[in-house]
């Protein structure tokens, strides 16, 4: 009798992993950093027990652990960030090269330093902006404002991210359509052309000198192309 009742339970636990493989999902950072590379700064990244840990370094600018490029995709993960730190995940972002002009639409006309990652970033923060997209190192504005979709930023949306907890993110980018969900609550939904392909980058934000170190942690990172 014990065997009869135990077997279905074991089968149920195994099913999500089988479905993950069959549905085209990839598990990132399960055993290490893989082919991801650190760009734009000197923050540190490591994997412990399947958890990607990003740690600030005094004096470093924003740093990203970059993979890509990708076009249409869905990305899911759980994230926990120190309250003193904010973070984000770049999508369809570009790595500036030597000789590049200033990005189209940027606030200034000066080119970015080589190795600077720029483009849309899905925000990770405890201050009510989580799940909104910020145009990192380019326009320097929220995409909900840029695309006139601020109505998505409801009180429920602003309160979706929970301090001192693991928070689930789902990011879907298909064509020019971007969506994000934090703990099941829609936090962004807009259409914006101009970035048909680009890199994903897990951010460790720069900090003021003499503060930190702070950490941001990601686990259960899953990715699939659409």
What does this structure look like?
This protein has 226 residues and is mainly beta. The protein contains three helices and 14 strands. The strands form two sheets. Strands 1, 3, 4, 6, 10, 11, 12 and 14 form an eight-stranded antiparallel sheet that branches. Strands 2-5-13-7-8-9 form a six-stranded antiparallel sheet, with no helix packed on it. The model is unreliable at 1-19 (pLDDT under 50). GO terms for molecular function: hydrolase activity. Residues 95-110 have a biased composition (Basic and acidic residues). Residues 23-224 form the 3-keto-alpha-glucoside-1,2-lyase/3-keto-2-hydroxy-glucal hydratase domain. It comes from Brevifollis gellanilyticus.
């Amino acid at each position: 009798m014990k065997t009869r009742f135990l077997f279905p339970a074991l089968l149920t636990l195994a099913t999500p992993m089988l479905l993950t493989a069959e549905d085209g999902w990839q598990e990132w950072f399960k055993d290490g950093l893989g082919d991801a590379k650190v760009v734009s700064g000197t923050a540190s990244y490591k994997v412990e027990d399947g958890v990607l840990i990003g740690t600030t370094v005094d004096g470093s600018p924003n740093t990203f652990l970059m993979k890509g490029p990708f076009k249409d995709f869905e990305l899911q993960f759980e994230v926990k960030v120190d309250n003193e730190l904010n973070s984000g995940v770049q999508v369809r972002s570009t790595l500036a090269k030597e000789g590049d002009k200033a990005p189209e639409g940027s606030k200034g006309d000066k080119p970015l330093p080589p190795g600077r990652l720029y483009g849309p970033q899905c925000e990770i923060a405890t201050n009510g902006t989580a799940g909104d997209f910020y145009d990192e190192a380019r326009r320097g504005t929220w995409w909900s404002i840029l695309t006139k979709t601020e109505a998505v930023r409801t009180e429920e949306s602003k309160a979706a991210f929970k301090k001192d907890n693991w928070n689930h993110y789902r990011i879907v980018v298909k064509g020019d359509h971007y969506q994000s969900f934090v703990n099941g609550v829609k936090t962004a939904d807009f259409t914006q052309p101009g970035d048909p392909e680009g890199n994903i980058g897990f951010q460790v934000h720069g900090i003021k000198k003499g503060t930190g170190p702070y950490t941001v942690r990601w686990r259960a990172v899953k990715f699939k192309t659409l």
